[in-house]
Amino acid sequence: MRIFSIQHHRQGLSEVERISADVDGVVDRLRDLPSVTGAVVLSTCNRVEVILDTDDEATPGHLRAALNEHFDTPPAWDLYLGEAALGHVFRVAAGLDSMVVGEREIAGQLRRAMGEAQRLGHTSLPLNIAVDEALKTSRRIARETSLEGAGRSVVSAGLDLIDVPDWRATRILVLGTGAYAGAVVAALRNRGATHITVHSASGRGAQFAESHDIGHVESLADALPSADLVVTCRGRGSHAITPADVTSPATFLDLSLKRDVDPEVASLPGVRVVDLATIQESLGHGIAEDTRRAQAIVNEGIAEALTKLRSRVVDPAVVGLRETVMGLVDDEVTRLPNRPLTHEDAALALRRLATRLLHIPSTRAKLAAERGRTDEYLSAMAELYGIGETPGIDADTLEAQSCPVTSLALTDLDSSPTREAM
């Protein structure tokens, strides 16, 4: 598994916004590569994750080059490989890498991204296993810790801190037009807000306003005095609002990692500023123990997923074994005489089948001895047939399990009469 990632706390919200705006179609481009067998794109307000299942021929440099062809300016991707990639999926699904630790919104976004990829035929068995196990672990964390209550979406957590007596009457100005701004508008509407306008220095404000059915203002200076609440989510690294811009009392909700609101604004009379630090502090330190517990659950989930993924490596061999053995059985069945079978007929067929099954292992035993590989051969015989001692494996346990080739257990083959039948 390979993951190319752009994250809010690594590359910044403005880069997340840029990449998420152009990420459509990237899966089709990657799926055209023979080395890519599965692809899922998770694009949210604060991250873009390109999750790939590839063969061994796919080098990170080759994948990065193919991915960057989709963008005018190549992104500064973080790359996760193998088990690190699997761990990243689990942490993302659990909300442990979110702005507000434990938020559950991301799990739903990942589930929908996976569902869309499955609908389009873009997934693979390893990707299905990895994401399914990550979502299962996320649900377990929600059951066994209190992170779900504390870990609301960062937008909801911020709005919870704003003292608004009547959302319908509140005049709200949103600064920014990225995916994060869309989440802000949705959250405000859920609370009953109706007077929402947007401003963007990028010139995309009018288009955003039209697509979200809200008002648009060209001049920030003209809009600020009439706003009761200003929500900023640009994150471009420079202050959009300074003390000189604020001429009347207002509340500011700054949702950017790189603050949009100058910290000096908070010292102005009648002004309140709620930023990400305020949101995190409001959640308290009580979630620290739950976070540690969640990480332990994540580690358990990763270990279980790795076991399932590694078992899938032998699937082609098991399928091949099934086809070979069943082919031999079918061949022997066709050789049975066309009359009621006798005991001798059955014995002959079974001996002939056993001889054919043992031919290659017996021949390989002779070759192994000739080449000085006796120990390797005996070890393989112990693993495959239980001949000899295999450390750490209980023979009774193996006999109780079903065969992956025939799906039968040894008890299914026992035709001796039971006490009840007698």
Describe this structure in words.
The chain has helices at about 15-20, 25-30, 60-70, 80-95, 105-120, 125-145, 145-150, 155-160, 180-190, 205-210, 220-225, 275-285, 285-310, 315-335, 345-370, 375-385, 395-400, and strands at about 1-5, 35-45, 45-55, 80, 170-175, 195-200, 215, 230, 250-255, 270-275. With about 425 residues, the chain is of the alpha/beta class. The protein has three domains: about 1-150 and about 290-310, Beta Polymerase, domain 2 (2-Layer Sandwich); about 155-285, Rossmann fold (3-Layer(aba) Sandwich); about 315-395, no CATH class. Helix 5 packs antiparallel against helix 6.
Q: What gyration radius follows from the Cα positions, in whole Å?
A: 31 Å
The CATH superfamily of the largest domain bears the name: Glutamyl-tRNA reductase, N-terminal domain
**How would you state the average pLDDT, rounded?**
84
Low-confidence blocks of residues:
416-422
CATH class of the largest domain: Alpha Beta
Q: Beta-strand level of the residues, as a percent range?
A: 5-15%
Largest β sheet strand count, sense and barrel closure: 6 strands, parallel
Keywords:
422 residues, alpha/beta, Beta Polymerase, domain 2, Rossmann fold, 3 domains, six-stranded parallel beta sheet, four-stranded antiparallel beta sheet, 10 strands, disordered C terminus
